[in-house]
Design goal:
Length: 419
């Protein structure tokens, strides 16, 4: 950047900050709410000669500073963006589903990031300061904001923003986006139709919530769905959905409602499908108990690097609830049927595998039924058993014609009619 351009940008930022402060004082002096119209009126009343386009741009920018995400607002307006991360004034990143990308958006100072974080957290009904340096809140508009202050963060204020889009993808749309094949869609539909209990596993940002919302939309319209979440993110297209959200304790530590308690409350609400948005703690005990007492067709999501790691993850979570490994194994044996693992690849999010929870001589394992490979989906050892359970809901004469049988075995095509 040449010296003239650098000077011009510094003067522009100074002008913006002066205008922001003038407009802020003007709108906050009023008695009504701060709305885009009041901000626009304050910009016009400031007397700055900005022109029509300049005044409109200034009003949008200042409204974002006062009510929205500040400099990040322009990124949130891109419908493809699902996550925004701020690591420093000149380190802003975003995710459009193809992996993290560095953004050209920047902040002037570290204090500007901290001020934005404090305002967002305050809008969520909590406080962010040295006594509470790590906070997670949900805001109107579908934003889930997590903020960390220094010295907990060694690089300054950190912001992580997850954006919940109102649009819910259907299975055909996910298939067209490359998440699975047409035959994979049939299998997923059959899992829901036959009311198999399931977990969707995967890493952060792999598409677990997106897929879960789409699957729940396949539930029969007469079914009552009760969703339990730490922060409401699921929004299935269904006529009868009830969502319960956990609550943090107040400053004195009272009033907290964790996921385990919400699962117990949900059981009194006569759910046809009970869903825990993310199993991450002791609530796994209540979920497994519910799925073992007639509440079939339920499930949730769980963080795991691979489907094969899910049994160990469940044991670890069960330990938080006071269950030993044998107790978890017995509960899981009758509670869960299928693990659907999603992964992020260079070409986008994929259903990497569909496995069946099975007790073996070596312990509980997720045995592959279908596995994604660059050449297509292939059948694994558990496909015949899964196909028998899904048979009534699969198309007549359904054939899985992947690239062959399970990896490492002789090629073979499983047909439901042949079972």
């Amino acid at each position: 950047m040449n010296p003239f351009e650098a000077t011009r940008r510094r003067q522009g930022r100074k002008l913006d900050s002066l205008l922001l402060e003038t407009v802020r004082e003007s709108v906050l002096a009023g008695h009504g709410p701060v709305t885009p119209s009041t901000v626009a009126a304050a910009v016009q009343a400031s007397g700055r000669l900005l022109g029509t386009a300049g005044a409109l741009e200034a009003a949008e920018s200042i409204n974002a500073e006062l009510n929205g995400l500040g400099p990040l607002q322009q990124l949130a307006q891109d419908p493809a963006v699902t996550d925004i991360f701020v690591n420093g004034p000149n380190s802003v990143w975003l995710d459009r589903g193809q992996g993290l990308e560095r953004s050209s958006v920047h902040f002037d100072t570290e204090q500007q990031i901290r001020s934005l974080a404090s305002r967002l957290v305050s809008a969520g009904g909590r406080r962010l300061d040295d006594g509470s340096p790590c906070v997670d809140v949900r805001l109107n508009g579908g934003y889930r904001v997590h903020a960390v202050l220094s010295p907990i963060s060694t690089t300054g204020t950190l912001l992580s923003i997850r954006i919940r889009r109102e649009k819910v993808f259907t299975l055909p749309e996910l298939r067209e986006g490359g998440m699975f094949s047409e035959q994979g869609e049939w299998v997923l539909r059959a899992i829901m139709s036959q009311r198999l209990s399931f977990l969707i596993s995967g890493a952060t940002g792999s598409g677990k919530t997106t897929l879960l919302s789409a699957l729940l939309g396949l539930s029969h319209p007469t079914e009552r769905l009760v969703l339990i979440e730490d922060a409401a993110e699921l929004n299935p297209v269904h006529p009868h959905v009830v969502t319960l959200e956990s609550r943090h304790g107040n400053l004195e530590g009272g009033g907290a409602l964790d996921l385990g308690e919400l699962v117990r409350q949900a059981l009194r609400m006569r759910p046809d499908r009970l869903i825990v948005g993310e199993c991450r703690g002791a609530e796994v005990r209540e979920l497994l108990t519910a799925l073992n007492t007639g509440h079939t067709g339920g499930g949730g999501t769980i963080h795991a690097n691979a489907a094969e790691a899910v049994p160990a993850r469940l044991v670890a979570l069960g330990a938080l609830a006071g269950l030993n490994a044998e107790a978890v194994r017995l509960q899981v044996s009758n509670a869960l049927d299928v693990v659907i693992h999603v992964d992020r690849t260079p070409t986008g999010r994929k259903v990497a595998s569909i496995g069946v929870l099975t007790d073996t001589s070596e312990g509980q394992k997720v045995v592959s039924a279908l596995q994604w490979h660059p050449t297509g989906m292939t059948c694994g050892p558990a496909w015949p058993a899964l196909a028998r359970r899904l048979d009534p809901a699969l198309p007549a004469g359904f054939d899985w014609s992947g690239s062959g049988g399970a990896p490492g075995t002789s090629a073979e095509t499983w047909s439901v009619d042949a079972l």
